[in-house]
Amino acid sequence: MASYLVLITQFVSTVIIVLISLKLKPTESQKLNNPRLVKAQAALEAWTHSITSDPNKITSTWSGPNVCNYTGIYCAPAPDDSTVFTVAGIDLKDANIAGSLPEDLGLLTDLDFFHINSNRFTGSLPNSFNKLSLLYELDISFNQFSGPFPQVVLAIPSLRYLDIRFNNFAGDIPSRLFDLKLDALFINNNRFQFTLPQNFGNSPVSVMVLSNNDIKGRIPSSVGKMKDTLNEIIISNTGLTGPLPQEIGYLEKVTVFDVSFNRLEGELPGSMQGMKSLEQLNLKDNNFSGVVPSSICTLPKLEHFDGSDNDFHGPLPKCPFIQPNHNRGKFMIF
């Protein structure tokens, strides 16, 4: 099932790009003596020197003062002065470009979105990104970035969408990440090693995906504080241990709850009956035990429940959508 928020975010991003591209191109008089476009030209020229492979020749147009005509570069009137054009966005996704990101990109201080997903960039984010105070969306997923978590993202005040999944980042995750005012957080499929901090529940995200990292310990009880915003949470294949906290019952807006392929244990909390919006519940391949509570049957929107490869026992609740597996004590509901 595709993430509803991800689809909406992609749609909004596309709309932003289309609207920006439909705006009038800057006139010659707007180009002359425009320090913002002069700085942008310098930043992008420096970037071309950091690119080692561009088989589709995307950056071959990055020459001369007409920055707004460069492929993948989107201009718009500046947010503080509608008579001045500035670079508002960069979208180079699926371009198969290799290289790194120079510090000069910090010159693009009016940038609203930076999408370079599905390329072959290496290194990490420049520290100069702390100057991108208007940056709303940052997507560097599906690249070859490495090193520790890019701390510079903690200093971008307008950031709402952060996607660094499918890279080679490693090490600890700063607890401050969960205090950011993000709408969406994707850090899955890296090599992070961390414990979910007590302020985990401070995050106001709608969707959070942490899967395929090395996460020690339990899901903090503070997860219940996410009840007003959280729609989807996926923390599969991470090594989580302990029981599910009773506080997950507060997550009445969650549609997807996936903690499969971990080492979670204990009985399912009866408070799960409060997850009224739940559509997909995936508990597969853990160490859960006890009896599956009959309150599962009362969840009005549940479509898929995978509880296979656990240690449940006793009779299954008589829900119309339950189908036992052939293996005793294991089952799948869908």
Automatic annotation (TrEMBL):
<dbReference type="InterPro" id="IPR001611">
    <property type="entry name" value="Leu-rich_rpt"/>
</dbReference>
<protein>
    <submittedName>
        <fullName>Leucine-rich repeat extensin-like protein 6</fullName>
    </submittedName>
</protein>
<dbReference type="InterPro" id="IPR032675">
    <property type="entry name" value="LRR_dom_sf"/>
</dbReference>
<keyword id="KW-0732">Signal</keyword>
<dbReference type="Pfam" id="PF13855">
    <property type="entry name" value="LRR_8"/>
</dbReference>
<keyword id="KW-0433">Leucine-rich repeat</keyword>
<keyword id="KW-0964">Secreted</keyword>
<dbReference type="InterPro" id="IPR051582">
    <property type="entry name" value="LRR_extensin-like_regulator"/>
</dbReference>
<keyword id="KW-0677">Repeat</keyword>
<dbReference type="Pfam" id="PF00560">
    <property type="entry name" value="LRR_1"/>
</dbReference>
